[in-house]
C-alpha cells in the first residue's frame, strides 16, 4: 500500500492522520516497538482500528509512514556561505540525527515501507537546495547522486552495519572527495 | 543474545545447528517470513522449541544467524591479476547477490541481529585478502575502510533505500575514485 502524501493540511483527513501519527510517536516513546499494536494506537488516537487498516493496510506501513514524516526536515539546510560549509553542516546534522536511537528506528522502518525511495527523495531535495545556491559560481558542482553515493551512503551504512558510526574526520574527508572531481 | 560462532564442525551441536538452519531456509522459501514461527522451525528440524530458545533466545536472533551464515562467502575473491580487476569482480558479485530478493532479506535480517558489525567483518576479510595480493606492488593501496565507505556503502544503501540499485557504470566509477588517492 502506498504511503499517503499530499493531504490538505487542516482537513478532517489530515487531522485524523495527525492524531494517529501522534499516538504512534507517544506509544513508541513508552514501550518496545514490537509490543505496539493497531488496537492500542486506535484507542489512543480516538479512532477505530478499521480507520487505521483502511488508510494504511497494516501496522508496518503505518510505522513507516510515521518514520518518513519524522525524516522530513523542519527547515532548509543552513546557509554558511560556501558549498563545502553547507554540505558539511547538513551532513553533520544528518549523521547526528540518524545515529541516535530514534534515527536508527526511522532508518529501519523506512526500509520496510512500500516506498523506501521516498527517503532518498527527501535527502535529494535538501542537497538540491544547497547546490542551487551555488549554481552561478564558477565552482564545479557535484551531482546529487554523487553526494548521495559518497556522503549519505557511508553515513547510513556505518550506522546500520558497523560497530561505530563515521567519525567527523571521516565524514569531512568523504565530503572533500565528493567535491573534488 | 550473541550469535554463536566457532562451533566445531561435525559435533552434535553443529549438526543440531545445521538442521535448524536448514529448517529456517526451507520455510523461508515456502512462506512469508512474518508467518514463520519457532514451533514450526522446531518441528521441521526435529528439535523442541526450547532447544531453539536456549540457543538463540528468540526468533529474530535465529533469523539473523541464518542470514549471517548465508552471507559468508563460499570462496576467496577471484584473482584477476590486477587490484582494480579483483575489486571490480568482487564488487560486481556482491552487488548482484545483495540486490536479489534473498540478498535484501539477508541485509534486513543482519541489521536486526545482535552483531550487525559481523557483516562488515566478513566483507573486510574479503577485501583484505585482495589487498594482500598486491601488498608488494608499488601501487598505493586503499584502506579496507575506504573501500567499505566508497564502494560497499553505496552498493548497500542504494539497494535498501533507493528506487534502483547502482548501475555497473556507477559502481566502476566509485571503484576508480576509491583507488585514486
Count of DSSP strands of chain A: 0
Order of helices and strands of chain A: HHHHHHHHH
Radius of gyration of chain A: 18 Å
Helix content of chain A: 55-70%
Structural class of chain A: mainly alpha
CATH class of the largest domain in chain A: Mainly Alpha
User: Number of folding domains of chain A?
Assistant: 2
Which range does the strand content of chain A fall in? under 5%
Oligomer: homodimer
Global shape of chain A: elongated
Q: What is the average of the pLDDT values of chain A?
A: 87
| Distance between the ends of chain A | 41 Å
How many strands, which pairing sense, and closed or not: the largest β-sheet of chain A?
none
The CATH architecture of the largest domain in chain A would be: Orthogonal Bundle
CATH topology of the largest domain in chain A: Tetracycline Repressor, domain 2
- Most residues in contact: chain pair: A-B, 26 and 26 residues
> What are the low-pLDDT stretches of chain A, counting only 5+ consecutive residues below 50?
1-8
CATH superfamily of the largest domain in chain A: Tetracycline Repressor, domain 2
Q: What count of helical segments of chain A does DSSP give?
A: 9
Main traits of this protein?
Arc Repressor Mutant, subunit A, elongated, disordered N terminus, Tetracycline Repressor, domain 2, about 180 residues, homodimer, 2 domains, mainly alpha
What do these coordinates show?
Two copies of one chain form a homodimer. Residues 1-8 of chain A have low confidence and may be disordered. In chain A, α5 (83-98) packs parallel to α8 (144-161). The longest helix of chain A has 19 residues, at 12-30. Chain A is built from nine helices and no strands. Chain A has helices spanning 12-30, 38-45, 49-56, 59-71, 83-98, 101-112, 117-133, 144-161, 168-179. The first copy, chain A, has two domains: 12-57, Orthogonal Bundle (Arc Repressor Mutant, subunit A); 75-179, Orthogonal Bundle (Tetracycline Repressor, domain 2). With 181 residues, chain A is mainly alpha-helical. Chains A and B meet through α6, α7, α8 and α9 of A and α6, α7, α8 and α9 of B.
